[in-house]
Amino acid sequence: xxxxxxxxxxxxxxxxxxxxxxxxxxxxxxxxxxxxxxxxxxxxxxxxxxxxxxxxxxxxxxxxxxxxxxxxxxxxxxxxxxxxxxxxxxxxxxxxxxxxxxxxxxxxxxxxxxxxxxxxxxxxxxxxxxxxxxxxxxxxxxxxxxxxxxxxxxxxxxxxxxxxxxxxxxxxxxxxxxxxxxxxxxxxxxxxxxxxxxxxxxxxxxxxxxxxxxxxxxxxxxxxxxxxxxxxxxxxxxxxxxxxxxxxxxxxxxxxxxxxxxxxxxxxxxxxxxxxxxxxxxxxxxxxxxxxxxxxxxxx
Length: 300
What we know:
Layout: H1 2-17, E1 30-37, E2 46-59, E3 62-74, E4 84-86, E5 91-100, E6 105-109, E7 118-122, E8 130-132, E9 141-143, E10 146-151, E11 157-162, E12 171-173, E13 177-178, E14 193-201, E15 204-207, E16 227-229, E17 236-241, E18 249-253, E19 259-264, E20 268-273, E21 280-288, E22 291-299
């Protein structure tokens, strides 16, 4: 009996001294290749590569990591199907993430998300626990159904958190992210489908079976760059728009997600006075027929 108690005590002590390691989601040596489509097994309506930079931003007293995106571009006209090249231009995403590695939770902040961050991923949940967030689940309470172990392509084992809803992509994996894309919320319904071509860490394929899906290069196509300068700005800002950006709109939002400045843009250089805007940090969005470009602008 004493031997059994002693063995149990050693096991409990080992679990305290050597707890299961937590695999961080936010890291700068990893890229996530995402695709999106309206129907499964069809050509994609959009696709991009997401990666975190070494840049931080402080919002409402919290420090967030800044991420960037590169767009996948089709080589030939027609539906968005392979082969692809990766546009070498880099654009800031409009989502900012912070991670609490002790609590095993990831929070997300978006400029138009109501002025506060939202719980995004919770890797501390147990089956039967609930996940409730204004961002993921579209505000509804999600109940964790099961936790299973999945084996990554490099042989490592990670926890997969399944929420038991249709479609089956309502899950996320520790250190990998959600089944509908890294920065995509868990959304019930069948309106859209998303996922990963692959997740690579230090150029090693961790997750996904389509890492070489129709790629023909990364530097073969480079679109004209959208520029917003100077940054920081004082009295004036200049916005350069390529000729193929039709019906472009420039929006400036404060840290609470409130629109403070909006202008229509034409191709070439657009110059606007911002002398009436209170100094501070703002988020901008340039929306056009080519998609949206997001970034951060400091006004002093």
